[in-house]
Amino acid sequence: MSNKFLVVVCLSSLPFLFTLNGDFVFDDSEAIVKNKDVTSGSWGDAFYNDFWGANIKSNLSHKSYRPLTILSFRLNYILNQHKLSSLQFKITNLLCHVICCVLLWKVYENIVHKRKLSSQESNIKRKTQNDKNKKWWMDTPYLATLLFAVHPVHTEAVCGIVGRADLLASMTFFLAVLCYSKAMNSKQWKYVYLVCTVIISAISMLFKENGITALGFCLVYEIITKLKFKRNEATTKQNFIERNSVHIGIDSIVRSITLMLGAATLLYARWNVMAGTKPEFKPTDNPTAFDGSLYTKIATYNYIYFLNAVLFIWPKWLCYDWSMGCIQLIKKLTDGRIIFVFLMYLYGILLLIAIIKNKHRKTNRIIILAVSLAVIPFLPASNILYPVGFVIAERILYISSAGYCLLIVVGFNKLLHRRSLIVCKIGVFMFLLLVLLYSVRSWQRSLEWRNEYSLFISALTVCPLNAKVHYNVAKAADANHQTTWALAEYKEAIRLFPEYYQAMNNLANILKNQKQFGESEYFLRAAVQYKNDFPAAWMNLGIVLANTGRFDESEQAYRTAISYRKKYPDCYYNLGNLYLEMNKTEDAMTSWFQAINQNPKHVLAWTNLMALMDNTGQISRALKIIPKVLTELPDAPSINFAIANMYGKLNRYGEAETHFKRAIQLLDKEVQAIHYANLGVLYHRWKKYSLAKEMYMNALKIDPTFKTARKNLESLQKINNKK
Fold first, then answer.
1. pTM of the predicted structure, to 2 decimals
2. What is the largest CA-CA distance in the chain?
3. Which of 490, 387, 455, 496 is nearest to 27 (CA)?
4. Alpha carbon separation from 630 to 376, 591, 596, 635, 636 (Å, rounded)
5. CB-based burial label for 671 (10 Å; 0-12, 13-18, 19+)
6. Nearest to 376 by CA among 266, 158, 225, 211
7. pLDDT tens string 137-157
8. 656-692 confidence digits (pLDDT tens)
9. Are 605 and 576 in contact (CB under 8 A)?
């Protein structure tokens, strides 16, 4: 047992172990980095907000209520001394995956062995233990656990930190099943275990919504395990119904009713938490749900089920996002993809026939439970009960893959049953090869999840028709200073989805930075045409208009942006810059003060404000705000540099020197010639000529063409010559 346990732990860890030093990627940014429920001082806010930090009762909420997952993120944050460390988050995810594998192993043993062994059976088991050790490949729970441990479809849940919700929900799902198994077999504590099953399922639902399906699986587990046909003594003339009757014990009835009442109560509570409203999704999230054709909905949804099954069998095509045209709708009967749907259901029918014909009840029971374990946890994502906000999401397959793995191993054992030694060896080799292939694929995929650049690029070959994929690739390329590629990808995203206003805004920003103001304006006006209440596009349009000298139009664009987003410090900052261009200095300072009031750590607004006060001779006014700015931004180089210049003009040389040195220290390798030159001027006026010369020389080393530094150095040499 200890050797097997070690193998399970190693296999579940190794494919992901070397990628723990990755970044926060994709949804991690919104759910963790930008989520105030993770970093705030309150533990209770998570129970009033959704997974992304929005009020759960709001119409704009995603309605994903997972407070316990958010609290687990918060615990990571606190344990890391109130810092967001992706390493610690990823280690926690990996540990959760390992624990899930161990718990699932126990679940498999309960499913396969049905109940606890009696003392007599335990003695028999001990006598045959050596034989079983020789035939480890016949240990169905162990082999299924190995396959589950390395399955590539788990990579998103393990490597994507937001996948913690699925891991914790799965962990409690398996615990609920184990607890229910105790309730079925225990005599003394059976009702305690039953109540614990419902409580653990409720906890699972607070990690992620699909945790409630644990109660559904337990109900199937009850029916398949405890439902019996009792044969009555009867004459041959009696029909089947008279000769056979369904027998179910009173305890089984109590357990079943408790499960159904528990599920109904939890669903009602969940509906109340959502304020009785459903989430509102966009057509880009789940295009099928918004199509008016019933045939298209049924055909496309069933094709999506087929694709989910393919991800289990051959997980080569893995993608972080399957929305926005990644899967084309099936609109015609002649669409060739409908064949795969028929094949999927044909397999289901053949499996059902095989179960009916098979007289081995234990095998039938395991197969039915394996299929149930694959299907029931998937139901909330199936669009049958209600539309969901995605097409395919690999992390929601985490629990369902447990059923698939068990089904595969049951089939594997059937193939090896009563076969020759050579056939068994070949079969074992093929199974180990499958585990190896899955392990390698998981390792490859985990490498892609290390950072957004590799993750986004990996999706291009899987979903080339997904506009969102091209949009994210463009963002990654732009961040990596691959501007030409970024432009091409943004344009491709817009070609695939002509109303993609976010892509238009980002594309316009790049064009603006390249001073292609005409083309930039074209895309920004298109963006606000598709989404009029798009503050970022209005602000960027204001910047472009200001750069082309249309100040009145620019001011109007800024005001429009602010009308749609009241708290918009960046827009107030840019509005202040516009007023400065228009020589409205008081209006400029008012706008910058507004930006600072909304964001006290807005470095650029503080810097421009202090520079303007300095240049307009409002030194006394500036001195009054220095304590506040140093409280908010003590380590901002530009702030220290601006303060140093003001103190220098007031002949407060010591204080000026301190802030000049602080600015240079903070800038480190990014220090510019002007920083040394201004410090040189300070020393020059302070009559510390040797230090002044040193600073001028430092400035000229950085920029040999710096005329002011060279002129001041020549002036300094004249002073020395006079001496």
1. 0.86
2. 134
3. 455
4. 58, 20, 13, 8, 9
5. middle
6. 211
7. 678 999 999 999 999 999 999
8. 999 999 999 999 888 999 999 999 999 999 999 999 9
9. yes
